[in-house]
Amino acid sequence: MNSPAAALAWEMWRRHQKRLLALGFLLAAFALFYPAVCARLGLNLDAPNALDELATTFSHRAGLPRPSQLYQIMSVLGILFVLLGPVTCMAISLFCVIWIFTLVQLDPKRGFSFPARLFTLPLSTRFLAAWLMGVGTATVVAVYLGWTRLVHLPHINVFDGFSNGLVWVTLLVVSQAVLWGLDAFPVARALIMTAVGWGLAFLAGPGLENHPLLERNQPMVLWVLLSVGCGAAYTGLGKIRQGAWQGWIWNWQSVFPAGVASHRTSGVFRSPARAQFWFEWRRQGRKLLFCVCALGGLPVLSLVIFKVIARLGPLSPHTTFGLGLYLLAVPLFIHFFQGVAPERDLPPFQATRPLSDGEIVRARLEAAALSTALSWAATLLLLAVVPFLGDVPSAIDQVPWLSRNLSSIQPMLPVILVALIFLTWRFIAADLWFGLCGQKQVAAVPGVKIYALLALYALLSYLMTDAGFERTLFQILPFALAGLLVCKLILARWAFRVSLQRQLLTRAALLQYLCFWSIFAVAFVVPAVLRFHRERWITSLVLGILLLLPLARIAFSPIALSLSRHR
Amino acid sequence: MNDAILPSVIEISGLSRKFGDKLVLNQVSLQVPRGRVFGLVGANGAGKTTLIKHILGLLKAESGSVRVLGFDPVADPVAVLSRTGFLSENRDLPPWMRVDELLRYTRSFYPRWDSGYAEELRRQFGLEGTTKIKHLSRGENAKAGLLLALAFRPDLLLLDEPSSGLDPLVRRDILEAIIRTVADEGRTVFFSTHLMDEVERVADDIAMMFDGRVALEGSLEEIKRDHHRLVLRFDAPPAAVPKVPGVLSIAGSGREWTVICNGSRPEAVAAMARLGGRVVAEETPSLDEIFVARAGGKIA
Amino acid sequence: MQLHISTGDGVPIYLQIAQQVKHLVASGRLAPGDELPPIRVLAQQLLVNPNTVARAYLELERDGVVVKRHGSGTYISEGGSPLARKEKLKILAQRADALLTEAGHLEVTLEDLLQLIQERYRSLQPYLNS
């Protein structure tokens, strides 16, 4: 280490070594194999808008006879994945690099903040700011050039903006400015970062068709943001170093009278279970709801504001459909990402509560349920605003299949909604027990499971090219599913019995869950049977639904928790 | 399991525990009698916190058994935890909670929670209800934890290094709380510490741990009675450190040397006389000196 | 009642308490009939185990310095007990030892010392008899 710059560089490299190597590997994989995969699938990468390819392929394959319906769906999904893959991966790599160069780390006391120990080194603020911005820009440009030059990216109109290198550099500098400048205000910072993310999407994405004025001035806007961002980032870093603004605790008691605050907390919890549920909700559940509201609400809110102030015309059907789909996807994705990385820690404060393991698990499940319910309530509220922004029927016409079958789907809508809500809850509840064990390797299994599922999907789509295979698959599927269901019931029975024996669970709680499970089973199976009873795959569908309802996993959760609670 | 008539509140026998290759507890056996203050004394890393984790059921006994208030803390955690007030060394109260929320949350778990007493303690400790835990100073954090442990009048008060890193004022509050607890009928205090001064003031019984073993156990009175500090005077300064068999430690320079020994005095005095030394003073050593003397013996 | 406990002294805490109470009685700061604080209160004040305080009180009761009245507390016993005088003489004996040692160092004879004491007594007499 000959100089502070080298030392800093080495430290950052070491900390993020695995990530950077993974990103490099990703780039290399795409550079080498992507053209070959596209050629295999018969996709034309040089077409002016690659998504048109998708539309033509879809309508072509939609005409094929019924038995290949599954094949159709899988091939469409596959092509979508392949087309959007490189752009998404490029975006992810660049986001990762930007995050690395903002240097925010998780501090147990202060949350996400700039590491204060860097200020105890003999480095001036100017040096730090210049180094982080300069080396950050260089890395972003390098990664960007790597992706655009080495990988033959398909040309997709919608993502044109992402192909602009200046946008990424501006994003880096603006992120640094916001994350450092607002270090003392974590909530405001989170909201503004989400808004920045949306500004990026708006700037780069589809919204610009409506405003030629903005499109023309885009480079100038970016340069302005870049220079202002540099100054703000440097100032922000200086302020963190001096500990300025730290005392500005947003004291809500000064806004609301003290009487309101004390009234809220003067009641007593009716039982330990309610107290623990409150604890889990306040600790974890609220965060997910906040993310959903921020991610869903901010774009809708800004679009409404723009519409009212700037008198934008209605959004194009394309955009309206995209917005609707996005709003539906937000709660699913947020809860999915939370479920894939289940919580591993059980701090002594929680472990020494005089509660049985079953009760702790129950509080977590209930908090997850409340988070799901409220997230979907918020989403539905936001969806209700969409007709105000754009024309819904023409948006639905974007997908011909949807507009043709709308009348048959409509009666099923409540069931679909309940299914989506249940699925969101399931993302968290089903994988809870992996994290409850407390072992790092076990907690990583849900993440690995995703890759395993993708591999399985790839394998199946390869094997499905043979029609004979498809026939045999459909023949043995019901039996395989039935076997799995029997295994599930046996494991669940065993786990529940052990839990009851060891008094991890009370009979009443067990019966409550079984009731709940049965109600949902009936709620999903009955409409499915009524609607699809003529189809061949009705048995597989019913068995699949029953398999998806978590029983054994919930049964194992108290046992897993007791493993980590009593090591 | 009628714990009202049990003589011992905590019974540990033959407890051993390994973390990887390291043997952290080595055949530890302890009996903590009811209604008294028990001090567990040991250096950092001697295994005190591990032992306390076994008592709370946070660790499962690999070999040996642990019984707290007649229950097994692993098989029956609710029974043990609802009667035990615990102040942890790490003070891991949830930082996002406010003090009044913390009290409201904690009281739901203990039917015997005394709100009047909790309020009195809160005022005495100077904790404002609307402050967030993460904005509390270290001392206030410890006091908040102590409040939670005391307010429901537990049968057993368990303190893990309660005074570590705290100023004298907060230490007084903690000692006062210990005394007040044990002054109530039938309640027991178990605390681990390496501050000998506190142990000497408040403990009835102590146990000394070194490297995972219990080296000394008994009532404080007995232990102090058994140990003696002798001041030896040699006619001529000995050339090297005099080797007196059967004593715990010997230190000094020139003609005057201090010896700490326990029990067996006559042989030691005879040995010292043979070396040319006379006993000029005999006192009771402080617990600190006993501890250092015993620890020194292990290192050598 | 101000007591001072020090650990690591070599002297057991209960003995320190007992001795200091006796000292207070001897020097007149605790008059006969005065009530000693309850065991619990004194324990909290001094930050020592209540059993230790109980033992000290027991010791004092055995030596006749205090008397436990049935159900209403512990009181200093009435009447100049011979121990009070013994305590007083013990205090002065300590001072006398210090004086004599000092005189020995300064090589002052016993006759000169006694003469000095008588002189000092005469000059201080008006103030002492208050």
Q: SSE layout and pairings?
A:
The complex is a heterotrimer of chains A (567), B (300) and C (130).
Chain A: H1 4-15, H2 17-41, H3 50-62, H4 69-102, E1 105-107, E2 111-113, H5 125-150, H6 165-181, H7 186-204, H8 212-216, H9 218-242, H10 252-255, H11 258-264, H12 272-309, H13 317-340, H14 348-351, H15 357-389, H16 392-397, H17 400-409, H18 413-430, H19 432-436, H20 440-443, H21 445-463, H22 467-501, H23 507-532, H24 538-548, H25 552-565
Antiparallel strand pairs in A: 1-2
Helix pairs in contact in A: 2-4, 3-4, 4-5, 4-6, 5-6, 5-9, 6-7, 6-9, 7-12, 12-13, 12-15, 13-15, 13-18, 15-18, 15-25, 22-24, 22-25, 23-24
Chain B: E1 8-19, E2 22-33, E3 37-42, H1 48-56, E4 63-68, H2 77-81, E5 84-87, H3 99-107, H4 115-125, H5 138-150, E6 156-160, H6 168-183, E7 188-193, H7 196-202, E8 205-210, E9 213-219, H8 220-226, E10 227-234, E11 249-253, E12 256-262, H9 265-275, E13 277-283, H10 287-299
Parallel strand pairs in B: 3-7, 3-8, 5-6, 6-7
Antiparallel strand pairs in B: 1-2, 1-4, 8-9, 10-12, 10-13, 11-12
Helix pairs in contact in B: 4-5, 5-6
Chain C: H1 13-26, E1 35-36, H2 39-46, H3 50-62, E2 66-69, E3 73-76, H4 82-106, H5 110-128
Antiparallel strand pairs in C: 1-3, 2-3
Helix pairs in contact in C: 1-3, 1-4, 2-3
In words, what does this structure look like?
The complex is a heterotrimer of chains A (567), B (300) and C (130). By secondary structure, chain A is mainly α. Chain A contains 25 helices and 2 strands. Chain A has a two-stranded antiparallel ribbon. In chain A, strand 1 and strand 2 form a beta hairpin. In chain A, helix 4 runs antiparallel to helix 5. The longest helix of chain A is centred in the middle third of the chain and has 38 residues. Chain A is globular. By secondary structure, chain B is α/β, with parallel strands linked by helices. Helices cover 34% and strands 30% of the residues of chain B. Chain B has a 6-stranded mixed β-sheet, with helices on both faces. Chain B has a 4-stranded antiparallel β-sheet with strand order 11-12-10-13. In chain B, a hairpin with a 2-residue loop joins strand 1 and strand 2. With 130 residues, chain C is mainly alpha-helical. Chain C contains 5 helices and 3 strands. A 3-stranded antiparallel β-sheet of chain C has the order 1-3-2. In chain C, strand 2 and strand 3 form a beta hairpin. In chain C, helix 1 packs across helix 3, helix 1 crosses helix 4 and helix 2 packs across helix 3. Chain C starts with 12 loop residues before the first helix and ends with a helix. Chains in contact: A-B, B-C. Chains A and B meet through helix 11, helix 12 and helix 14 of A and helix 2 and helix 3 of B.
